[in-house]
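This entry is set out below.
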Amino acid sequence: MRFFTFKGLLLTTIFMLLGCLSIQAEDDDLITKQVTVKLDEAGTLPDKIGSAKKYKITNLKIIGEINGTDWRMIRDMAGRNVSHDETEGNLSELDLSDASIVPGGDYYITCAYFDYPSKIHTSYQVIGDLAFEGCSGLTSLKLPSDIRLIGRNAFEGCSGLTSITLPSGVTEIQHSAFYGCSGLTSITLPSGVTEISNSTFSGCSGLTSLTLPSGVTEIGSSAFSGCSGLTSLTLPSGVTWIGHFAFKGCSGLTSITLPSGVTEIGESAFANCSGLTSIYVYAEKMPKLRTNMFDGCDAKKCTVYVPKGTYDDYWLSEFGYFENIVEFDPTDINNVITSNDAKELSRYSLNGQRLSAPTKGLNIVKYSDGSVKKVAVQ
């Protein structure tokens, strides 16, 4: 009896080992080194790769023109097919820096979204609508250098992407382009971008820092909602409009600066920004404010700094949600000390208390050249 028990155990162990070896063999079968494919004609990527290898390649570089047929293949290799279903694709690194997107070939994805085509094709110099939608296995991506537009929901759900640099020629990023890219920690936006569209970075919870181009004038509705990793953000001086729910749920945001040109801020724009401790408002003329702007924020912990002579206006507005509103002179604040000669002698809070180190908020600093300046510490 003991013999048969031992024999059964031995056989079970052997079968388990064989199973592990089989799995290991499958993993080892993946092609991890970069595969470079040069296309002499758009639409030939499926023939170049072949069905036997399309799910084994993990790192791919494409040279030449690519159309809808090629894009359908890329999606298939990256884990999603034309119908949005998961595939066995393992593509994680994709280099298109020497490729160019052209019209033609098959449609690369079907779509049931309102106001979208039912079948989406490629266009010149465009990362199209839903181009990489659902490709969560992608971790590294280089885009064609001639791209000028990023389409709607282009990278939606690409949770594996950690960073991406957009080509300098990009001037338009359409709504929801990076929706749900929770792994994205940083992104460089080209100088030609003038609008952050609705829901562009919504749900990008891993985003910790972002520099907006100086030409940006509008922040769309829900543009950064749920970006809980953001800690501070200075909006460009040209921003005039901040949409509904633009920063809702940015719980890690501790400081925000609103430029003087802001004329309208939407409903619940900063709702549930529970980490806010300071808001610097440079608009001397009260912007048009919608309701519930700061719901869920800490009314006691956050201090609002408003231009001199505007206290009453701001206290009577949505900003009156906060208990601490302090006036300052916007023309007398220096965020950066540019003089190399003058040395700091002493530092005080606004109520005259001596400070041993820079403290968040407005500090009064005396320098060795006799000057006294108000310094905003963020």
